[in-house]
Amino acid sequence: MTRLKAYLELIRYPLFAIPIVATLPGALIASEGRWTWRVAATLLIALCGYFAGMIKNDYFHHETDKQTNPERPLPSEQLTPRQAIVPASIIYGLCVIGGFYLNVKAGLLVMGLVAISHLYNAIFKAKGILGSLTLPLGIGLLSVFGALAVSGTVPRLVWYAFAATTFYDLGTHITTTFKDISRDKELGILTTPLQIGIRPALFLSAVATVLAFTIACLPYWLEPDIQKPYIVWVVLGIIATVGTRISLYRQPNEQNGYFALKGSMIGSIFFFPCLIGTQVSLIVSAVIIVPLLLVTLFLLKITRQEV
Questions:
Q1: Which of 15, 73, 76, 232 is the most buried (most CB within 10 A)?
Q2: Cβ distance 191 to 128 under 8 Å?
Q3: pTM of whole model > 0.90?
Q4: Using the 8-state DSSP alphabet, how is residue 39 labeled?
């Protein structure tokens, strides 16, 4: 049980909804709103790959975590580095096999996503703006993977989802770095605010976030044959995001950075899957999105695990 608990902490299971909501638009748009075994398989592959990436993150940074997060499973020696890297690699391998089982294009993209995850965790995470660009690209590509896995093609609406998700996660990733900015500076970990400056980083985050919301609204004006009420999820994403970032822009400190991060997490669960509302009714999309949000908040509360 102790080892199981350590693995659960390693994968950060309360964040399970993020890969699901990032993949859903591509999968459901490609299936025209129908729930099929391919949609389910696609979500499972995305979820497992995300968890493997979390394990790899702790593996590559367990030496730094000895100073910053000594209670985590690897620095506290609840698990050895080998006990982390082996299952993570096996999971990645199974995800690749699953992708190729669905079709060749999906398999190739899974290989690309694994490469992006590895590069981020092993190299780019501490390389400032490169890290802030790399991880959001991987999150955005989950919607493209969803479409390829379900239909072998990428409908036009999915490209809106890809761009909106990528830009939103770029803005979020930059705000994320503020919650540890003093510690990162002390340890020599280069993040975007430390590389280009606090105000330029906040400006870049704001531009990326505005672009994300603008792109998500474009189908409302440009695509005549879609269900318009999807825009409700965009609005809720805007409220959650903007409402929790104001304090960070007024006072860029760690406390406000963590508050902005939690708001962005809530906003992402509203916003990432917003375009599924072009294929299913508002009620159906609410049945999908709201439980994911509530379960995430509940798990974060009872585990008190860091976002």
A1: 73
A2: yes
A3: yes
A4: H
